[in-house]
Amino acid sequence: MNITVRRLTAGDEAIAHQVARWLKGADTPSDHAAAFVANDANYIIVAEVAGEIVGMVLAYHLDRVDHPSGQLFVYDVEVTESHRRREVDRALMRHVREVVEREHLKEAFVLTDRGNDDAIALYSSTGAVTDDEEAVVFVYPGSS
């Protein structure tokens, strides 16, 4: 299987719109999709097989006061059911690692639930290490 992995950029608004619909069922306005992919801090990385999007990573570049080039927060990793456990997920995470190297970032990090065995296996098998076994995530929900 030939997997092509790439980051969406300006001009890929229609694909960003498709990914938003697939990911969250969101009907993202075209102007928002265009602004999102044009923002260098936003990353939509897609995996394609035979011209079809079968996986994606949504990530954000975070500036840091202690490291001039920042870090990458991997917010979401999705692979279509039909392409799970077929190297698509690994290809996406290899691309994330390449972004870290190419952009001289401090690191990329991703959060997952302790019970998400598939995600833990993916991240562990692609070179990620746990930073803090006792970390707890708190969320301040917005009103919208």
Structural features, described:
The protein is α+β, with helices and mostly antiparallel strands. It has one domain (3-125): Aminopeptidase. The protein is built from four helices and five strands; from the N terminus they run E-H-H-E-E-E-H-E-H. It has helices spanning 13-24, 30-38, 88-102, 117-125; strands at 3-7, 42-49, 52-62, 71-79, 108-110. The chain has a five-stranded mixed β-sheet with strand order 1-2-3-4-5, with helices on both faces. Helix 1 packs across helix 2 (30-38). The longest helix is centred in the middle third of the chain and has 15 residues, at 88-102. The radius of gyration is 15 Å and the shape is globular. The chain starts with a strand and ends in a 19-residue tail after the last helix. The model has no long low-confidence stretch (mean pLDDT 91).
Topology:
Layout: E1 3-7, H1 13-24, H2 30-38, E2 42-49, E3 52-62, E4 71-79, H3 88-102, E5 108-110, H4 117-125
Parallel strand pairs: 4-5
Antiparallel strand pairs: 1-2, 2-3, 3-4
Helix pairs in contact: 1-2
Question: What's a quick, concise take on this entry?
Answer:
This protein has 144 residues and is α+β, with helices and mostly antiparallel strands.
CATH class: Alpha Beta
Distinct helical segment count: 4
Largest beta-sheet characterization? 5 strands, mixed
Mean pLDDT: 91
Number of domains: 1
Strand order of the largest sheet: 1-2-3-4-5
- DSSP helix fraction: 25-40%
Structural class per helix/strand content?
alpha+beta
